[in-house]
Design goal:
Layout (H helix, E strand, L loop, with lengths): L11 H12 L6 E5 L6 H13 L16 H7 L6 E4 L9 H11 L9 E5 L7 H12 L5 E7 L7 H4 L3 E4 L5 H12 L3 H10 L4 H8 L5 H14 L5 H15 L1 H17 L5 H41 L12 H10 L2 H19 L4 H16 L1
Bound molecules: zinc ion.
C-alpha cells in the first residue's frame, strides 16, 4: 500500500527507518538528515512532517500517513502553518535574529495540528552565535515540536548541534538515477530532467520545482543559452545590455514572491501588533534577498553547464554533453575554444559566484563573466 514515504525515492533505508519510527510512535525531537546535494533530503523532510502531523497518526494503515487528508495535502503543498521551513538569510549563513524568531515561534502552540515541525535547511551554515541562540530550545524543546535539520555532512555541523540530534544518513544518488526521479515526478523527458538538475546545483527537489507546470525556468534557461550563443558576434556595448537582461530574467520569480508578501502583510495588518508587523516585514526582506541570490546561482549554474559542455566537446566526449538540445551551438563554440581557455572561463564562473556572495553588484559580476566567455569563444 502506498504511503507518504513512497516519495522518498532513491533512499530505501531512510524510508524504512522513518516508517518504523512513525509506526512505533518513537518520534524524537530532533533529527539531522545528512547527505550530499541531490540526495532528496528536503522531500524526505516534508514526507516525515506529513507523517507527524497527519491526524490519522499511527493508527492508520502502515503506521498512518494517509497522504490524502487536508493536513497531508497542506504539508505536501508546503502551505501547512505548523510546518515551517528555514534557510540561511544572511550572506554568510543563518542570522541570529532568524534563530531567535524560530525559538519564539517554537514556544507557541500549534495552529492546526497537534505538533509543529521545523525544517532547517543547510544547517552547515549555522555559525556559533546563531547556533547559541537556538541550543537551549534544541536541547529541551517544547513537547510538541520536532526539528528536522538538513546538512550535507555531519562534519560540517557544529558538534553542539550534532550531539543533540538523531542522525539519519542519506546516500549519494547517482546522476542517472536522479534524472529518473525528476522525470518520474514531473513527466519531463530524461534530457530535461538532467538539464534541470544541472541548473539547480544537483538538487532534486529544486529541479522538480524548476520543471513544474507554470514555471518559466526552462524558458529562462533557453534565454541564457541563446545569449551565450550570440556572444561572439556582439559588440562590447551589447554585452553590457545582455548582462542586465539576463539578471532581470533571472530575478523574474521575485515579482511573484513580492506580491505574495504584500498580500501576507495586508492580511495581517489588522491582527498583528506594530512590532510583529515590522518583524514580518524584516523577514520578508531577508527572504527576498535570499531568493535573489538563489536566482543568481541558477543563472551562473546554467552558464557553468554550458562551458562544461564546451569542454566535453573539446576533449572528444560529446556524449557527456548535458545541454544536448543546443549541441550545434556548443560545437561551434568548441571549435574556437581550447581546453585551457574554457577552464579559465569555468574559473571565472566560480569567481563570479564568490563575488556575488560577497555583495558585489550582480550586474558588474555577470558583465565580467560574459566578457570572459566571449573572449574564450571568439
Ligand atoms: Zn493525512
Amino acid at each position: 500500500m502506498a504511503d507518504a514515504f513512497d516519495c522518498i525515492v532513491g533512499q530505501p533505508q531512510v524510508r524504512e527507518f522513518l516508517r518504523a519510527t512513525t509506526a512505533n510512535d518513537r518520534i524524537s525531537h530532533a533529527y539531522l538528515f545528512a547527505g550530499p546535494a541531490g540526495s532528496n533530503k528536503t522531500q524526505a523532510a516534508y514526507a516525515f512532517a506529513q507523517a507527524i502531523l497527519c491526524p490519522k497518526g499511527a493508527k492508520g494503515p502502515r503506521g498512518g500517513r494517509c497522504g490524502a487528508c487536508d493536513a497531508c495535502d497542506k504539508v505536501m503543498r508546503r502551505k501547512h502553518p505548523d510546518v515551517r521551513y528555514f534557510a540561511p538569510e544572511g550572506a554568510n549563513g543563518y542570522l541570529i535574529e532568524q534563530m531567535r524568531e524560530m525559538v519564539t515561534d517554537a514556544s507557541m502552540a500549534p495552529i492546526q495540528a497537534k505538533k509543529k515541525v521545523y525544517i532547517i535547511d543547510r544547517v552547515d551554515q549555522l555559525g556559533t552565535s546563531a547556533a547559541n541562540a537556538f541550543l537551549k530550545t534544541l536541547e529541551e524543546p517544547p513537547g510538541n515540536v520536532v526539528f528536522i535539520l538538513l546538512g550535507r555532512t555531519c562534519d560540517g555541523v557544529l558538534p553542539t548541534i550534532l550531539s543533540r540530534c538523531q542522525v539519519v544518513p542519506f546516500r549519494h544518488i547517482p546522476a542517472s538515477e536522479a534524472a529518473g526521479i525528476v522525470a518520474q515526478n514531473t513527466g519531463a523527458s530524461l534530457l530535461h530532467a538532467r538539464i534541470a538538475i544541472e541548473a539547480c546545483g544537483g538538487s532534486i527537489s529544486r529541479a522538480i520545482e524548476f520543471l513544474a507546470a507554470g514555471s518559466a525556468r526552462m524558458e529562462f534557461r533557453k534565454r541564457v543559452l541563446d545569449t551565450l550563443e550570440r556572444l561572439r558576434h556582439c559588440e562590447d556595448w551589447d554585452v553590457v545590455g545582455m548582462a542586465a537582461d539576463l539578471i532581470k530574467a533571472a530575478n523574474f520569480p521575485l515579482d511573484a514572491a513580492r506580491q505574495q508578501f504584500e498580500q501576507e502583510l495586508a492580511q495581517n495588518q489588522d491582527f498583528l501588533a506594530k512590532s510583529a508587523l515590522r518583524q514580518l516585514e524584516a523577514r520578508q526582506k531577508r527572504q527576498i534577498t535570499a531568493k535573489s541570490s538563489e536566482c543568481m546561482r541558477q543563472l551562473t549554474a546554467i552558464i557553468r553547464s554550458w562551458i562544461r559542455d564546451v569542454m566535453m566537446i573539446c576533449s572528444g566526449c560529446s556524449d557527456l554533453v548535458i545541454n544536448q538540445d543546443v549541441l550545434p551551438a556548443l560545437q561551434a563554440a568548441a571549435q574556437r575554444a581550447t581546453l585551457p581557455s574554457a577552464l579559465c572561463a569555468l574559473r571565472a564562473v566560480d569567481e563570479c559566484e564568490a563575488s556575488i556572495a560577497y555583495n558585489v553588484s550582480p550586474e558588474a559580476c555577470i558583465d565580467a563573466l560574459l566578457f570572459k566567455v566571449k573572449e574564450v569563444i571568439s
